[in-house]
Amino acid sequence: MYKKGDFHLHTNASDGNLFPAKLVCMAKREGVDIIAITDHDTLSGIDEALMEGKKIGIKVIPGIELSTLYENKSVHILGYFKDISHISPKFKDFLKEMNLYRINRAKKIVNNLYKFFNIKLDFESILKIANGVVARPHIAKAIINAGYNYSFDYIFSNFIGDSSPAYVPNKKLSTTEGIKMLMSLNAMVVLAHPILIKDINIEDLIKLPFHGIEAIYPANKVCDTEKFIKYAKKYKKIITAGSDFHSANKKSLKHGHTIGEVYLDENQINDFLSKLKSLSDDYLL
After folding, report:
1. Could you give the CA distance from residue 27 to residue 140 in angstroms, rounded to a whole number?
2. Fold of 5-88+189-278
């Protein structure tokens, strides 16, 4: 049975820097035997990852990380699927709209960076860096590549964070709408990295109809993990664990977590898979 699972990983289909097959191989080398690919607002890297997983003997769960808004604050939600071969055309069209919006949003952020901070970037080069879904880490990387002497953390805190005049919000999808949309696809829906959510009452958020909470996350302190597990038990949610891996080079993207840095153990994985299976009895995991 599966003994080590990492259920939050990004490829270059969104803002990671590894091709899906390469990421799967790295997970295998790190001793992780079940993973989920959860790229931002896209499913485009899933098929490649599934094929590589079958080839080298590692279980790959199709997933996605949706960007939503709760009380006008950014909240990310994770959706896990048993199968994406029957994903509705309506949802695929929605993801295409999200991608187009992200491109326009990135262009506005680039213009704002010049307007407010005199930071000049080549937008076309950012699109090339992105190679898929454009996200703020691509813009941060472009700032560094352009020769500006700032760290990723400084760039996010001062130039492209939610409170910056250069910031442009994601397409308006409420957290409740995002949950409903994923549930309509028989996805298991999980609140992503609650430790990173600011200026929101976390317990109120957890009360929403999530199936689970990403209670185990690299940025947590021990007391944070204990708190989120306590909430999960209180509100009858499953717990998940995810490294939120983006890059093999810790300095190349904002997120510097390694695959398997945090993980679910065998019993927790069984709970995860049981819940996932229960959402569609006609599919055998």
Report:
1. 26
2. TIM Barrel (3.20.20)
